[in-house]
Write a structure and sequence with these properties.
about 300 residues; alpha/beta; 434 Repressor (Amino-terminal Domain); Endonuclease, Chain A; 2 domains; six-stranded mixed β-sheet; 12 helices; 6 strands; about 45% helix; disordered N terminus
Length: about 300
């Protein structure tokens, strides 16, 4: 488990526009805070050096804003970090964090809050998600996704639908990297009975879901109707875990026009408990492929 959950607590209440590597940006913030606290300096003193307010420095330490190489270099000097190797590594990370990511070409169909999620999703090692209405985006076929996107609110134009489809297909590439990403899905049984498209589209979706569920890096469980009301009205939720042990898990709860991100251990742990409870109540992952294929032709 990560050991510095509270270092990034400021990230929980708003969705920043992260364009570079989110994990790298968060790591830089953690390191800057560690060095500042080690020399006993407050944010007001440190901010004065780079002509920044304490609130801006707080955003930097939380990874919620971009970094200038000059500012980071000045802060490292102020904090007494003189080792050239350490300075060089951190400044190289700044360059990496500022580099544009692939989704920049889709900015016309990505709201700011969702850009934040894309940065998190791409940098994770494990994605745990609970789906209550539709098949998760990473497991959707093109035609199923088109039906879902077309019915979203506000209604997108035909061009927007195709652009969002292209974005979704690009996101799905991360599941082609089994050594880097794992996906663990728990779906409410209602997802399997909600027909969002024509029968042939649904049949193709169920076959695709079955094949994905058979992949070693993908786990899909179904929460049956017979499990009762253990969820207590909780909607869809995703927990993102990063390969860097310094970073806390992030809980993402998507709403109609925004999203909420939680990183403080006191906020995140109840969602881990929820996911564990759902996993125990759900059918085993080994049963999912057969369940999905049983729906074909139905």
């Amino acid at each position: 488990m990560p050991t510095t959950d509270d270092d990034l607590s400021d990230v929980t209440r708003e969705a920043p526009a992260w364009s570079g590597s989110t994990a790298v940006r968060l790591l830089i913030g953690v390191q800057l805070r560690k060095h500042r606290e080690a020399c006993g300096m407050d944010r007001e003193q440190a901010g004065y050096t780079i002509r920044a307010s304490p609130s801006k420095l707080s955003r930097m330490e939380a990874g919620r804003t971009g970094f200038k190489v000059r500012d980071v270099a000045d802060l490292l000097t102020l904090y007494g970090v003189s080792d050239e190797a350490e300075r060089g590594t951190l400044l190289a990370m700044v360059e990496q964090a500022n580099a544009p990511r692939w989704w920049q070409e889709y900015r016309d169909v990505i709201p700011d809050w969702f850009e934040s999620y894309l940065g998190l999703e791409q940098d994770t090692s494990l994605i745990r998600t609970y789906a209550v209405q539709v098949v998760p985006a990473l497991l959707q076929t093109e035609d199923y996704a088109r039906a879902v996107i077309s019915r979203s609110s506000p209604r997108p134009s035909p061009l927007q639908v195709e652009r969002r489809l292209a974005l979704r297909a690009r996101r799905q590439r991360l599941l082609g990297e089994p050594d880097a990403h794992r996906l663990w899905v728990i779906m409410d049984e209602a997802v399997l009975h909600r027909r969002v498209a024509e029968p042939d589209v649904m049949d193709a979706q169920w076959e695709h879901l079955a094949r994905m569920a058979e992949q070693p890096h993908v786990s899909v469980q179904v929460l049956p109707f017979t499990s009762g009301g253990i969820v207590g009205g909780i909607g869809p939720v995703t927990i993102l875990r990063f390969p860097q042990q310094e970073l806390p898990d992030v809980v993402c709860m998507e709403h109609l026009t925004t999203a909420q991100y939680l990183t403080k251990s006191t906020d995140v742990l109840p969602y881990h408990a929820l996911m564990d409870q759902l996993s125990v109540a759900a059918l085993p992952a080994s049963a999912t492929a057969a369940l999905a294929r049983d729906l074909i032709g139905g």
